[in-house]
């Protein structure tokens, strides 16, 4: 006898089939797989890194087709994808937040990646670096080997946390042609960390830009210095820390600390004052001490008088 489903048995209105002793076989549930969505965060295949171009400081209203049309003049573009979109996510996914244009305040740019078919075309497209596109200067570089030239770059510290690349560009363009501006931002919040780099096309311009050190920018005092290579920073970390010396002490003898003094660059001993110049200061200090002593005596006398008055009142009562 063929096994029937529970719904068929109930529809037949025959109780004999329900209790005939044949085991009931439930049908297996059909699992419907959700449609596969192509994820842009795929692992990059081997050999594609050298053909990928990074494009930074792109306006938020720019779309993939605009970037593809811009870079298609250098060769065939296989793929374009967008990254670092500063959106207020909340409970919404990124795609929905982008569609609703819920961008964070103070952030007006994002990044793109362009995959060329040929390596030579990707190298040639670097000519767009520094060009103005929809009111913003693009930062174009190879994703695998970003250019780093510390001789033409200055480090800018104490920047406002909410600042754009264009505002920093306008602040430093008076010193010469700028190659690119890079502001270090948090990967998740996309907010600035208060530091950045400005790379010039000429080495002399970077030297002149150091004059901006201690200048005011949007209510903050900038720290501008020559950019250092990562190897130089590691050497400074590995170098032994100079020992502290009490240079202001009159018992300090520099002849006993020659090795330590050599570590400290441009170490200068404090200038000792002539004893005759200290006579006036000693007299002033002595006068202040006498005044304090007199005030203390007056307080003691007033306190004793108050105590005597209180005792007299108690005795009378």
UniProtKB/TrEMBL annotation:
Matching InterPro entries: Nucleotide-bd_a/b_plait_sf, RBD_domain_sf, RBM34_RRM2, RRM_dom
Molecular functions (GO terms): RNA binding
Keywords on record: Repeat, RNA-binding
Entry annotated with the keyword Repeat: yes
Keyword Transmembrane helix annotated: no
Region (Disordered): 226-248, 265-317
Ranges of Basic and acidic residues composition bias in the record: 226-235, 286-295
Bias kind Basic residues: ranges: 271-285, 296-317
Coiled coil: none
SUPFAM superfamilies assigned: RNA-binding domain, RBD (SSF54928)
All copies of domain RRM, residue ranges: 51-145, 152-229
Name used for this protein in its record: RRM domain-containing protein
Organism encoding this protein: Stentor coeruleus
């Amino acid at each position: 006898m063929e096994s029937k489903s529970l719904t068929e048995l109930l529809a037949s209105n025959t109780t004999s089939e329900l209790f005939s002793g044949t085991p009931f076989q439930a049908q297996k549930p059909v699992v419907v797989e959700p449609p596969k969505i192509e994820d842009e965060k795929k692992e990059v295949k081997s050999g594609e890194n050298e053909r990928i171009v990074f494009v930074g400081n792109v306006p938020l209203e720019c779309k993939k087709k605009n970037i593809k049309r811009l870079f298609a003049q250098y060769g065939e573009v296989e793929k374009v994808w967008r990254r670092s979109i500063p959106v207020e996510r909340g409970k919404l996914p990124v795609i929905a937040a982008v569609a609703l244009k819920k961008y964070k305040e103070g952030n007006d740019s994002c990044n793109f990646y362009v995959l060329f078919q040929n390596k030579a075309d990707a190298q040639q497209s670097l000519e767009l670096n520094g060009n103005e596109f929809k009111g913003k200067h693009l930062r174009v570089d190879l994703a695998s080997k970003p250019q780093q030239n510390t001789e033409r770059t200055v480090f800018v510290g104490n920047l406002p946390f909410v600042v754009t690349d264009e505002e920093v560009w306008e602040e430093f363009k008076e010193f010469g042609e700028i190659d690119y501006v890079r502001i270090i931002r948090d990967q998740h919040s996309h907010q600035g960390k208060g530091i950045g780099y400005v790379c010039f096309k000429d080495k002399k311009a970077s030297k002149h830009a150091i004059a901006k050190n201690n200048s005011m920018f949007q209510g903050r005092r900038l720290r501008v210095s020559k950019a250092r290579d990562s190897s130089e920073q590691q050497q400074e970390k590995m170098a032994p820390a100079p020992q502290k010396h009490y240079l202001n002490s009159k018992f300090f003898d520099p002849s006993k600390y020659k090795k330590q003094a050599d570590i400290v660059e441009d170490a200068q001993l404090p200038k000792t004052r002539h004893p005759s110049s200290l006579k006036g200061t000693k007299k002033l200090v002595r006068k202040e001490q006498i005044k304090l002593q007199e005030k203390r005596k007056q307080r003691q006398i007033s306190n004793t008088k108050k105590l005597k008055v209180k005792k007299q009142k108690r005795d009378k009562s």
